[in-house]
Amino acid sequence: MRTVIAGTGFYVPDRVVTNEELTRYMDTSDEWIVERSGIRERRWVDEGMSGADMARRASLMALEEAGLEPGAVEAIVLATLSPDHFFPGTGVFLQKELGLPGIPALDVRTQCTGFLYGMSVADAWIRTGQHKTVLLVGVEIHSTGLDLTTRGRDISVLFGDGAGAVVLTADDDGERGILSTHLHADGRYAEVLWAEFASSKHHPRITRELMDEGRHYPRMQGKEVFKHAIVRMPEAVQEALTANGLTVADLDLLIPHQANLRITQMVQRRLGLSEDQVVSNIDRYGNTTAATIPIALAESVRGGRLERGNLLCLVAFGSGFTWGSALVRW
Ligand code: ACO
């Protein structure tokens, strides 16, 4: 029994925010952002749009592609670092919107690798026969939590909002499906990319003074993240290939987490892949964290970049640090 990706979907907000627009809020330039990150624009939600809303839209698209009604979903796994509320998780709000009371809804909190952690859990549920159909979603609203002053410019120019979803189903065809998933984390680097406050370690969890200092915004040591990402991502791809007795020469398409175009290019070169074997959409969406891989996957399917029998690798690296890969026979 294998897990197959039966449907893919995505949703991004209508509002396009160009680099030029960001220059109105902070001291930055289109040139700096494009040269350092490859990002030209990103999407931001309008007031009132929730993560659960975006997740629902992406999910319905994935269900339609799979030819399934929402009622076929037996479990929800939702990855996000920007939940709609501190608790409960966004997964149950999505469940409510889809009208699926009673089924399990699990939130995954492993940032850029969240979608792959979620895929690993869903794959295990399906292969052990616990569930036949699992809805796996990655969704992120960064725009409401960014420091849009010059103080936050190193991070705020990188992130965007969006959602991506896949419907995973059991299949005994024996050939296609998820071949394996490989997950890692190293908490020694937890504070290299993090949002320190609001924090339940402190009473109160946030104060006016802390907010004035911007301590509730994400902070990142960019060079440190970069250095680790370009080692860990190729390593995770190799690990997945080796585990399945395959090599880079067998790979048809790589969908890396979209953190930075320069990271993607380094990963491509280190693996010896050609540019057209590596998916990149960061120029249009920026870094949408848990949503980047499913958005890029849904776009790849719609762009005709995947054919039955292709070998696809998904790979991510991000805050935690967390990283991992999944190998899929399409
Ligand atoms: N516009 C203009 N100037 C800027 C901006 C900006 N938006 N941001 C920073 N600068 C300035 C800095 O202040 C600094 O100025 P100084 O030399 O006068 O001090 C200069 O540009 C260089 O800053 P660095 O931080 O050294 O720039 P670097 O070359 O490291 O590039 C970047 C920064 C793009 C963030 C890079 O480190 C990077 O890509 N890191 C990886 C980040 C990443 O991918 N994070 C997300 C992955 S994990 C996840 O998805 C959750």
Summarize the structure.
The protein is of the alpha/beta class. The protein is built from eleven helices and 13 strands.
Question: Could you give the topology of this structure?
Answer:
Layout: E1 2-11, E2 15-18, H1 19-22, H2 30-37, E3 41-44, H3 51-66, E4 75-79, H4 90-98, E5 105-108, H5 114-127, E6 133-140, H6 153-156, E7 162-171, E8 177-185, E9 193-194, H7 208-212, E10 219-220, H8 222-243, E11 253-256, H9 261-271, H10 282-285, H11 292-302, E12 311-318, E13 322-329
Parallel strand pairs: 4-5, 4-6, 11-12
Antiparallel strand pairs: 1-7, 2-3, 6-7, 8-13, 9-10, 12-13
Helix pairs in contact: 3-4, 8-9
The structure holds acetyl coenzyme *A (ACO).
Describe the protein's architecture and organization.
There is one protein chain. By secondary structure, the protein is of the alpha/beta class. It has eleven helices and 13 strands. The strands form four sheets. Strands 1-7-6-4-5 form a five-stranded mixed sheet, sandwiched between helices. A four-stranded mixed sheet has the order 8-13-12-11, sandwiched between helices. A hairpin with a 3-residue loop joins strand 12 and strand 13 (322-329). The mean pLDDT is 98. The structure holds acetyl coenzyme *A.
